[in-house]
Amino acid sequence: NAGVTQTPKFQVLKTGQSMTLQCAQDMNHNSMYWYRQDPGMGLRLIYYSASEGTTDKGEVPNGYNVSRLNKREFSLRLESAAPSQTSVYFCASSASGNTIYFGEGSWLTVV
Amino acid sequence: GEDVEQSLFLSVREGDSSVINCTYTDSSSTYLYWYKQEPGAGLQLLTYIFSNMDMKQDQRLTVLLNKKDKHLSLRIADTQTGDSAIYFCAESRYSSASKIIFGSGTRLSIRP
Predict the structure, then answer these.
(1) I need a labelling partner for A85 at 20 to 30 A (CA). Which of A21, B65, B81, B98 fits?
(2) Residues A93, A24: Cα–Cα separation, whole Å
(3) What is the pLDDT of residue B60?
(4) pLDDT of residue A4
(5) Who has greater pLDDT, A39 or B56?
(6) What is the spatial distance between Cα A101 and Cα A1, in angstroms, rounded to a whole number?
């Protein structure tokens, strides 16, 4: 039972490079989310997708784009990475209620 | 706006009880959560409580809610080394998970 799977687990980027974080869930959940976690700041919502075909901005969307490819997959793209985007990124999903299931995280460093 | 605050660190002796505290500002909060994050892993829901409840107990975990003071606590009885983790308090006014506000997390360390 994989749950929420995100790749890659670790990535180092140079400033200005682009990359996509991939996320897939096998729980048939409608909603998916991308968060970033920074020291002393808890989790902040970047984007979410309430259902297949829809995406909405969260608290900190600037510098990111997302794609809800199908019900299972929700990707996060950094078009031009900046050092301020160095963080741990978590993908998550939920069913119709408000219990969220998290992936294991992706550690991204932008130099 | 909404805010959730918790202390950053807590150290307890193995076998003692741990009490992790949290305060929130939104008086309309309906759902209050405790998540656990082990090293190198994502957050895992430990327990939650509705705002119309004062207490919830689940094995070694006891959640207390003081709605008047907007104070939430998590008590872990007989703390074990496996309880070492970061514990996040979170609240939501709505049933939608996109509206959940997380605290900064409390790192619980266990000493022998």
Answers:
(1) B98
(2) 9
(3) 96
(4) 95
(5) B56
(6) 13
Are B88 and B102 a contacting pair, CB within 8 Å? yes
Residue B95 has pLDDT above 70, yes or no: no
Which chain B positions have a beta carbon within 8 Å of A4's beta carbon? 42
Q: Tokens 């096998």 belong to which residue?
A: A26
Q: Please indicate if any CB of chain A lies within 8 Å of the CB of B39.
A: no
Would you state the structure tokens that stand for residue A10, as one six-digit string?
């670790």
Cβ of residue B58 closer than 8 Å to a chain A Cβ: no
Does the beta carbon of B43 lie under 8 angstroms from any beta carbon of chain A? yes
Q: Does B104 touch chain A (CB under 8 A)?
A: yes
Q: Tally C-beta pairs within 8 A across A and B.
A: 58
- List for chain B the helix, strand, coil content (%; round to 5): 5, 55, 40
- Give the list of residues 6+ apart from residue A39 with CB closer than 8 angstroms, or none: none
| pLDDT for residue A1 is more than 90 | no
Tell whether the model's pLDDT for residue B1 goes beyond 60. Answer: no
The verdict on a CB contact (< 8 Å) between B42 and A50 is no
Task: State the Cα–Cα distance between residues A8 and A84, nearest whole angstrom.
Answer: 19
B46-64: average pLDDT: 93
For residues A68-78, average pLDDT: 96
- Tokens 């008047």 locate to B68
Nearest CA in chain A to B39: A104
pLDDT of residue B3: 86
